[in-house]
Design goal:
By secondary structure, the chain is α/β, with parallel strands linked by helices. The chain has seven helices and ten strands. Bound molecules: adenosine-5'-triphosphate.
Length: 229
């Protein structure tokens, strides 16, 4: 009698949805986008490209809880973040959302190290020395923020955000001040972080080659979000 053969089936589990936006519409002086739907899954990276002024940063602000849309909703943990009470929203923004914008919001009177320590105090995580080395800022860590170059400040703000271990990274031109090689180093770290932490990332960029390294690429154009990849 032959042995029972066990057939091991691959488990095809649906990826968890991290963020879901429905019917987003927004305008300032003119309409920027209308009825946009958007989903970010665990371990997924999504790039948003488009012409200057098309509304990419505005969309990222809305997705990251910083700007309430004129219409539509943004769901995180199945709840519309704009219907949450202020303290709950602040907690999500502090603990779960890692916002990397062009204005770094670093504390300028403090050293680079102090800026990182603030993130460790908020999250009870350690400063990741290896990450600082990979980002090539380990040797400026004791300098004041004001003494760092623009690109070093940018990488410090990225290190600070990653120290928090966010569930979702929202990055608006995170490599804007960097040369091509350093920009790639930073992007590699962000992708690595997402993979290793079951996180997700939404990246706004003008760099098509950096966008194409993401799992999905959308172009904001004519009020719509068109899927390019
Ligand atoms: N807070 C605001 N109040 C009024 N108008 C705004 C505000 N924020 C953005 N806008 C306008 O909305 C439009 C889209 O701006 P946004 O920064 O979202 O574009 P973008 O696609 O990110 O541009 P860029 O690629 O140049 O950064 C612009 O015309 C801008 O002036």
């Amino acid at each position: 009698m032959g042995e029972d053969k066990k057939i091991i089936k691959p488990i095809t589990q649906a990826q968890k949805i991290l963020l879901e936006a429905k019917n987003l519409t927004h305008e300032f002086d003119y309409k920027l986008f209308e009825n946009i739907n958007f989903t970010l899954q665990e371990k997924q990276t999504i790039a948003i490209i488009g012409k200057s002024g098309s509304g990419k940063s505005t969309l990222l602000n809305i997705l990251s809880s910083l700007l309430e849309p004129k219409f539509g909703k943004v769901n995180y943990n199945n709840q519309n973040i704009y219907k949450l009470n202020k303290n709950t929203l602040l907690k999500i923004r502090r603990d779960d959302f890692g916002i990397i914008f062009q204005a770094h919001y670093l504390f300028r009177g403090f050293s680079a190290n102090d800026n990182l320590k603030i993130a460790t105090l908020l999250s009870e995580n350690e400063i990741d020395e290896k990450l600082l080395k990979k980002l090539e800022i380990d040797f400026v860590i004791n300098q004041g923020v004001g003494e760092l170059s623009g690109g070093q400040q940018q990488r410090l703000s990225i290190a600070r955000v990653l120290t928090k271990k966010p569930k979702i990274i929202f990055a608006d031109e995170p490599t804007g001040n960097l040369d091509k090689t350093t920009a790639q180093i930073v992007m590699d770290r962000l992708h690595e972080y997402v993979r290793e932490n079951n996180s997700g990332m939404i990246l706004v960029t003008h760099e098509d080659d950096l966008a194409m390294q993401c799992d999905k690429v959308y172009k904001l154009e004519n009020l719509e979000l068109k899927e390019l990849k």
